[in-house]
Structures are given as C-alpha cells and as structure tokens.
Write a structure and sequence with these properties.
The structure is a single chain. The protein is mainly α. The chain has one domain. It has four helices and no strands. The chain starts with a helix and ends with a helix. It comes from Nannizzia praecox. This is RNA polymerase II.
Length: 66
C-alpha cells in the first residue's frame, strides 16, 4: 500500500483504495487473529498482544460469564 500511495502522489494520479488494499490480506490477517488470539503482525508474534480473543463457552450461564 505504501508503494502504491507513493507512486500515485509522485505521478499525480488519483488514489483508489480498492486497488491498493487487497481484501485477501485483510481477511487472512483477521482469520489468523481470531484463530490464535494473537493480535499484531504474524511475523512479529513476540511483540503482538496475546489472548485478545477467546472461545466463548455457552454450556452454562456461569461459564459464559467467566
């Protein structure tokens, strides 16, 4: 995205986000974050926020609250 924006600014062309942003990249990152619970870059797993998403257990009302 950075290179695309830079090229558009240098050449004076109009910026189209649907060209610069790939939907598969966004959806893949979201799937990874929800599956693992690690939010941040996949390459920098040590610096990402761990445990942000958890599986919701709805077997009983008490387990839903915990």
């Amino acid at each position: 995205l950075y290179k695309y924006v830079q090229r558009c600014v240098e050449t004076g062309r109009q910026l189209y986000l649907n060209i610069g942003v790939k939907a598969s990249t966004l959806s893949g990152g979201l799937k990874y974050a929800l599956a693992t619970g690690n939010w941040g870059e996949q390459k920098k797993a040590a610096s990402s926020k761990a445990g942000v998403s958890q599986v919701l257990n709805r077997y009983t009302y008490a387990s839903t609250l915990s």
